[in-house]
Amino acid sequence: MPTEYRSALLSPPDTVDSAHDFLVDVLDQRPDVTAAERMTIETIVSELITNVIQHNPDRTVRCDLLLRVEPDLFTIETTDTGQVALAESECAEMPGETAEHGRGLALINLLAAVEYVRVSDRNRWVLSVPRQREGGRERG
Amino acid sequence: MTGFPIEPVGSDLSVIRVEGRLNMVTAPHLRDTVAAAVKAGQSRLVLDLRETSFMDSSGLGALIGSLKATREAGGDLRIAGAGEQVLMVLQLSNMDRILKPYPNPETAFAD
């Protein structure tokens, strides 16, 4: 099976559903990915892509998405042409209970190890999720 | 799609069936559906999440906004039938304390 899966979005017209549809197609080909892992990956990618789109409401933004599936680790990388994103440390806390926005990056931080860098005129996010093990044995 | 199906149950309770993904694309539709229901005098609402395949923080924000809208109108909003992924997001965000998940729509207002 392949290790890397790539997709490119251009929003608009693409939406977060475009990335989600891509993920569904990929993960349907990966019976080794558990339901719990799938939930985690889908949630992370949805939050990441939503964040990119929401922070660039008045411009077209390109976002390249990479999912790497290794025996011990998932890596999700996005590179986007949007304006400078907030560093993850600034958004790591859950907002108050009545807040209707602002949980996306906090959720991501609970699900993955997060690296953010601004490279030239692009935002690059690298998220790492250790894979679950069954009975203490590696899979794959 | 511009809204989710809503079905009155009895005289003062309605069930909104949330189908598919609840994300930044569809969250506004849920907000609109709830706002229209509240405007029409239906402020006790159950969100039937049995057919909700996915929810992220945008969807969660719509749930919270909907809860506030019903309570401001003197009613309440409850969620029922959430799947594992929706429950995960509720638990990670600690919002399962505010939006207690009920097993099914029939029991959501049983207390």
Question: And the CATH topology of chain B?
Answer: Transcription Regulator spoIIAA
What is the level 1 CATH name of chain A? Alpha Beta
Low-confidence stretches of chain B: none
End-to-end span of chain B in angstroms? 33 Å
Task: Say what the CATH topology of chain A is.
Answer: Heat Shock Protein 90
Mean pLDDT of chain A: 90
CATH architectural name of chain A? 2-Layer Sandwich
Poorly predicted ranges of chain A:
135-140
How do the strands of the widest beta sheet of chain B line up side by side? Answer: 1-2-4-6-7
CATH class of chain B: Alpha Beta
Largest sheet of chain B: 5 strands, mixed
Rounded to the nearest angstrom, the radius of gyration of chain B is 12 Å
Query: Can you write the helix and strand succession of chain B as a string?
Result: EEEHEEHEHE
Helix content of chain A: 25-40%
Biggest interface and residues each: A-B, 26 and 24 residues
Query: Please, what is the CATH homologous superfamily of chain B?
Result: STAS domain
Largest beta-sheet details of chain A: 5 strands, antiparallel
Envelope shape of chain A: globular
Measured by DSSP, the beta-strand proportion of chain B falls in 15-25%
Please give the domain count of chain A. 1
- Please bin the fraction of helical residues of chain B: 25-40%
Core attributes:
heterodimer, A: 140 residues, alpha+beta, Heat Shock Protein 90, 3 helices, 29% strand, disordered C terminus, B: 111 residues, alpha/beta, Transcription Regulator spoIIAA, five-stranded mixed sheet, two-stranded parallel sheet, globular
